[in-house]
Queue: 3 jobs
Job 1
Amino acid sequence: MHDVRTVRAPSMLRLAAASLAGTAIEFYDFFVYGTAAALVLGPLFFPTFSPLAGTLAAFATFGVGFVARPLGSVLFGHIGDRRGRRPVLVASLLLTGGSTVAVGCVPAYDAIGVAAPLLLLVLRFLQGLGLGGEWGGAVLLTAEHAPAERRGLWSSFPQIGPAVGFLLANGVVLGLAATLTDAQFAAWGWRVPFWVAGVLAVAGLWLRSSLVESPHFLEIDRHARVPLAEVVRDHWRLVLLTAGALAVGYAVFYAVTTWSLAYATERLGVSRGVMLACVMAAVVVKGALTPVAAHLGDRLGRRPMCLAGCAATALWMFPMVALLATGEPLLMFLGCLGAMLAFITMFAVIAAYLPELYEPRVRCTGAAVGYNLGGVLGGALTPIVATALAEQGGRVPWGVGAYLTAVALLSLACFALLPETRPVGVPVAEPAME
């Protein structure tokens, strides 16, 4: 039998780095679509719509990826609970990477008509399916290898991946926007970030080829025959609570990284490059502070950090939209930064919190389904709802602030009903790095 506490720090460093790289690549795939949806997909694939309706339609295809994520968590969760966490990482990366490259090859509406948005819809669904399996596999493989006293810290490395993926995606877009004319970007430049996903997927597969299976999985005596059935029968309340609890994180993150781009460029006339720079700067800080927040979760507990993050989010949403509405880069950055700090207070510890809530035999399915259902509640609807609310209001989109505040209060109530899971009586020692 394996003892997770005997895994040496250098091994954990390699494992955490490989998990971080994989999640970064897969979230790059996911985010590059969101950025394209905010900037160019509406006119190219829904040209018969008004500018607002085209943006909403593009965001609707963006939301399909979130709807697919719970289905991906069921599919890959079954594999993870029956066959192991490691196979999930390879299969999910292949699916997400392949479908992302294909998005970059889809002709626009002018070339093939209604088939163009339909193809986008199918490929976005496949993207979501792959990402639905990615998070559970990467987080569990790291969390189940980690020593109990440092599980929060080590598990936070895959949580840095979304920030890195977002920066990669938008860095590529920003570079293209700075070197191409608007006509060139709309004609072919927007496709380049999708093609880059193919190179990143190959690199990710190489990094993950050396990973070993989770010791917790190897210690299971009887694997669940149908993991989803056990989760629905025995843990349905836990799944619903975790989904509701995580909704605010998705809502805030995609309000900042997706909706704000469309709002600033279309409603306020802020240049694409300026708004991307504001958001990217906030995400850099968020990524850098992820391990710090996770370390606090190891010391103070998972639940207190989540409650604090929800409360901070509820208090910050109205100031955030007011700062965004100024159109001033520094103030917009501060609005985004406050939201990202509240977000990471919660989500830095989620990678340790969710696996600890579920027993090992159904952990891959339960944690991933709860996590990705939260994505449907918070991420799929937010760009659509926020865009519609902003259109109905004045210059300051107070309706968006009210919506995000309401989601934060819902999540706060769900976190309040969840138990604490941080191991009790385990000394917190600094990891040896030699």
Job 2
Amino acid sequence: MKENEEGAVLTDRDVRELVAGVLDIDVADVGTDTSFYVDLDMDSLHKAEFVVALERACDAEFAPADAARMDSVGDVLRLLRDRRRVS
């Protein structure tokens, strides 16, 4: 994880590790296009834990609408890219 003038910048690997940590699974099981719900059986509590972990990791807050659009690592990376929080 690196920093820019707006805060922490995450990599694809950082996001996948956050997902794996919340779900207590191997990071190798989390791909960029892996669906949180269909492929990983993430529930709403896991999703809330992931969003909090993501907010802490990149020192940013996400609106509920932004969090609702996070269905895969790719979705998270697109959101972070829009905020210049991904490398």
Job 3
Amino acid sequence: MTESRSIGEPDALLDASGLHCPLPLLKAKQKLASLEEGKLLEVRATDAGSWRDMASFTEQSAHTLEAREEREGVYYYWIRKAGVSAS
């Protein structure tokens, strides 16, 4: 599973490895709340359900899932906080 593209360096990192659903998503929401608008959050998770959860969350929110990929059982997500466009 890969849906990646060049997005630049993240402004914050959340390692949710080892956490089971729904904790990776809840931790990501908390971390996004602490970021300024337009900042990029990288989330790492090992729970396969996070693939669906992160996509659903960003589709239903104003945040943007910039990219996501799976490498050797680790799921990576890059989520841009809603607000100012990063150009």
